[in-house]
Give the backbone structure.
Amino acid sequence: MAVAVELTHVTKAFDTTLAVNDVSLKIEPGECFFLLGPSGCGKTTFLRILAGFYQPDAGELRFDNAVMNTIPPHQRNTGMVFQNYALWPHMTVAENIEYGLTLRKLAKTERQQKIAEVLDMVQMAEYGNRPVNTLSGGQQQRIALARALVIEPSVLLLDEPISNLDAALRQHMRDEVKQIHSRTNITTFYVTHDQVDALSMADRMAIMQDGVLVQVGTPREVYQFPKNTFVASFIGETNFIPGRVLNVSNGSTTIETPVGVLQSETVYHDLAPGAQVQCSIRPEAIHLGELQAKNRVTAKVAAVNYLGRMEEYQLVAAGIPLKAVHYDPGTEAKRPGDTVELAISAEAVIPLLD
Ligand code: ATP
């Protein structure tokens, strides 16, 4: 049975640095949960608290109803996969995987059966007798995953597991980890600074900044409704247009900006007239041309990058640089220096408070 992982007001400090600052979070049983944030925000510290390498200074960590604060790592039944694989180079693939089973005192035949099953799961069935140092990076990472999974952990902890792999292999491993997760249904906690990993794999994700969870939600919620400017720019690309709220009524906000008055219909902060905001607008929400939309902005094309399946426009409106992306580039490209009319829907304008 998958377990729930729950943190209540968990804090961990190093001298004066609050690496994890009053974090409360419940990860549901069987959930694939991602922790995402820039370097130094506290991700590794968070993961180490779950694994038992650090004890919280304050607060409580529970796996289901069991308080885990002082339980040592080897008694937590967590499986861990590290960025650098951390396999034993002098052992074969099977010996690496067998280690955790031997510690658990399983009989030889049962060990062999479990090793065969897990190698099959990571598509490395024929590799049992190979020394691990003869495997490629991607293959080693699969063995690290197999070693973590074979003990049937209550919680699977992954620390940047695919960031050492090249782009094509990363994509492949994303699909594989996703498939393995849906087959095993193990509660999974995955730490990364890579937004593509998180957006494409997470059931839910948390964005961490300076030890604090600034937003928790599904990838769609976080991308479409970022809570603040940090989240909006950290997850995906965005444009910011500064402005001042003129008027709020019936779910619609009117904002005065240097590019003209903008209408927003995506408002989930309490905004009062006079509030200073940054309007976040994703590049794919800025359309060039005659489309119907509540907002129209005049801009000049600064540069055009044709990228095959899409086209990127660098634009400038009232001195503010804007980026637009079109996934269906027409045959008639705009040129640098052209003046263009931009169409932006009211739903695509997200006024953020900081
Ligand atoms: P990265 O993505 O670069 O690995 P991170 O998000 O995992 O970063 P942490 O390693 O958790 O961040 O570090 C969070 C903060 O705590 C940083 O300011 C770091 O310098 C500090 N820190 C982490 N471990 C220790 C330690 N053992 N002693 C002192 N300070 C530490």
Summary: The longest helix spans residues 167-184. Residues 14, 17, 19, 37, 39-45, 193 surround adenosine-5'-triphosphate (CB under 6 Å).
